[in-house]
Amino acid sequence: MLNILVTGGAGYIGSHTVKILKERGFNPVVYDDLSCGTRASVKGVDFIKGDIGDARKLGRVFAARKFAAVMHFAAFTEVGTSVREPAAYYNNNLTKTITLLDAVRAAGVKYFIFSSSASTYGEPLKNKITESHPQNPVNPYGRTKLMVEQVLKDYDTAYGLKSAVLRYFNACGSDDSGQIGEARKHETHLIPLLMQAASGRRKDIAVFGGDYPTPDGTALRDYVHVNDLARAHILALKRLLKTNKGGDFNLGSGKGYSVKQIIAAARQTSGRDIKIIRSPRRAGDPARLVCDAGKAQKLLGWRALYGLDKIMQTAWNWELKLAGKK
Ligand SMILES: NC(=O)c1ccc[n+]([C@@H]2O[C@H](COP(=O)([O-])OP(=O)(O)OC[C@H]3O[C@@H](n4cnc5c(N)ncnc54)[C@H](O)[C@@H]3O)[C@@H](O)[C@H]2O)c1
């Protein structure tokens, strides 16, 4: 059984990927400092509590067993905080990733899969974003992701470390089992916030901007189910193992839903009213951000399988569990 080191595996997308890795016959080993993730989200899996910036600990982990690949989810993920505290973001997402990469290199691990983001593109110049779209991130978070992408290119050229860079659009939903899901201490994502407002754990939610040049004036985003993202990791891993080829891949559904449409869907799925506070646009929020996932379809055989109904239903089931109502 191939060992896969999963940094940040106790977090939202990492824990869903760990579950699918196990189901597909790999042996995921989670390495997470639990700064955001939880131990409960990776029950029954080898778990090491550690920081990706801890070179000594990483050395011991890589000396203890042979890893076929590393999947690197560990990062700070809040755009707003990255603007206020860029030092923390550059340190955790960039400097510590280089520490991790040097441990990967020293151990002779050949393959690396990196959680990048649509935020590396910045202000979209086209309706649908392909991998050839210019990358001009507009906040420190997006810049940390782009910088790691650039480091990975140089590590491939110089050291032959092959990497798959996966640029997720808006991850959402939760596993059908209801055992794992999205649970941040400071939630900033639209769907879990709406579900919290529907369950009564939150009074209301703010919607930023109603005057965008979109059909209903609210921002359009591409929502992709977390299990679809997890499955893309397995496909990228298999491609690396089989062909020694990595590359960059956009992962999204290819459909744009407006904030208003998502609010309506959340009301419908939960059967509850949700109090909305209308607020002005936030700086740096583009009007639309929709993925062209043609490259992932062509080279990985991947496309998003979960539609909006399933996304909302799994998110609502998970919220009911968190709220203690299920
Ligand atoms: N959620 C999204 O919509 C989205 C979109 C694009 C990209 N991403 C990227 O996907 C990855 C996973 O995101 P998520 O939503 O699951 O976030 P998350 O916060 O749930 O998971 C991140 C995990 O990394 C761990 N971690 C953070 N810093 C660490 C460190 N120094 N050492 C060890 N562990 C550390 C945290 O404890 C947490 O378990 C991140 O790299 C994020 O930037 C997420």
Bound molecules: nicotinamide-adenine-dinucleotide
Q: How many domains make up the coordinates?
A: 2
Q: What's the N-to-C terminus distance?
A: 36 Å
Broad shape? globular
User: Can you say what the CATH homologous superfamily of the largest domain is?
Assistant: NAD(P)-binding Rossmann-like Domain
Let me know the average pLDDT: 96
Number of helices: 10
What is the helix fraction of residues, given as a range? 40-55%
Main sheet strand line-up: 3-2-1-4-5-6-11
Radius of gyration: 19 Å
Q: Percent of residues in beta strands?
A: 15-25%
CATH architecture of the largest domain: 3-Layer(aba) Sandwich
Q: Tell me the CATH topology of the largest domain.
A: Rossmann fold
Any chance you could write out the topology, listing elements then pairs?
Blueprint: E1 3-7, H1 12-23, E2 27-32, E3 46-49, H2 55-64, E4 69-72, H3 79-84, H4 86-107, E5 111-117, H5 140-159, E6 162-168, E7 170-172, H6 190-199, E8 205-208, E9 220-221, E10 223-225, H7 226-243, E11 247-251, E12 257-258, H8 259-270, E13 276-279, E14 288-289, H9 294-300, H10 308-322
Parallel strand pairs: 1-2, 1-4, 2-3, 4-5, 5-6, 6-11, 7-10, 8-13, 9-14
Antiparallel strand pairs: 9-12
Helix pairs in contact: 1-7, 2-4, 4-5, 6-8, 6-10, 8-10
Bound molecules: nicotinamide-adenine-dinucleotide.
